[in-house]
Amino acid sequence: MLHPMPLQRHEGHAVVQIRGLTCGYDKREVLSDVTLDIMEGDFVGLLGPSGSGKTTLLRTILGAVDIFQGQVVVEGVPTSQQRTKVGYVPQLETIDWNFPVTVQEVVMMGRTMDKRFFPWYSREDRMLAAEMMERLGISELANRHIRELSGGQQQRVFLARALVGSRRILLLDEPTSGVDIKTRDDVMHVLHELNHQGITIIMTTHEINAVAVHLPWIVCLNGRVLAEGPPTEVITSEILKLTYGADMPVIRYQGMTLVAESPHAYGRHAEEPEIQKLEAAHTNGSDQGTDHGSGNGHGHGHPHDHDHDQLEELEHKPVQPNPVQDQEQEVEHV
Predict the structure, then answer these.
(1) Rounded-to-integer distance, Cα 45 and Cα 55, Å
(2) What would the mean pLDDT of 141-159 be, rounded to a whole number?
(3) What is the pTM (predicted TM-score) of this model?
(4) DSSP 8-state symbol, 117
(5) Across residues 159-176, what is the average pLDDT?
(6) Once rounded to an integer, what is the mean pLDDT over residues 207-221?
(7) Measured distance CA(28)–CA(20) in Å, rounded
């Protein structure tokens, strides 16, 4: 758990209101009849398979997707009337890391949203960028090229750019995708700290156990909203089956929600020939009678010696205690 007590969903006014939204690209429908309220101070995770419309929903809030029906209102203003002032962090995979730009220059780009006709920066802009870089621990990287940074540092740079553009609402598309475990945890801790400081966060994710189950509010999507609520209510086998079209057992263990993907049949079948081979070796070795130790030549060159030794090694390997089995009574299947 990232925080001992994760934030509860806020009651109050909605900073993002989505009503009967049907949207997509080039007259192709991606999302249908979506109705959602994102409350001020929320930390929301959008969950669903690839192509389910998660990124499209973020881009709709930005005002970058064709709306066929319905309405999206951000802080009281419909996106059809005005470009929204929200911070956006794209997937790192979509960034051109060879573009000749420094960390400071990337962060400053967040101030161009309101200055399309006057793109130069004021003293206030530079001070705000410096404040955000200091806040995210990347001040010493200001003059470095973005391609020289680690994955976690790159993610912080684009977080700073987004926060320079908007310090109220933050949209993130797969912020933990393609990074190692340490970087993922660092990014999530930064996001939780920002959320505790009052920033509303909406993020997409594919990582159920590592990310989604730790968030206060989850929305499951697959072309439409299938379910929303706290992880304890949304992360169930039934809802995940509806969302992903696959069996995904869910258990509650020592206060944690854990999702297990069923192993693929190929993986199980691939091991069977080896097991059968060892069993055959054991049977054939036993059928040779009790003369194996009597010096009748079995000790050298027998075709099953190697397999027989492997089987004995497996059979005599000490069994380690299984804490999950020892506490089996604490596991509740959902």
Answers:
(1) 12
(2) 92
(3) 0.75
(4) S
(5) 91
(6) 94
(7) 17
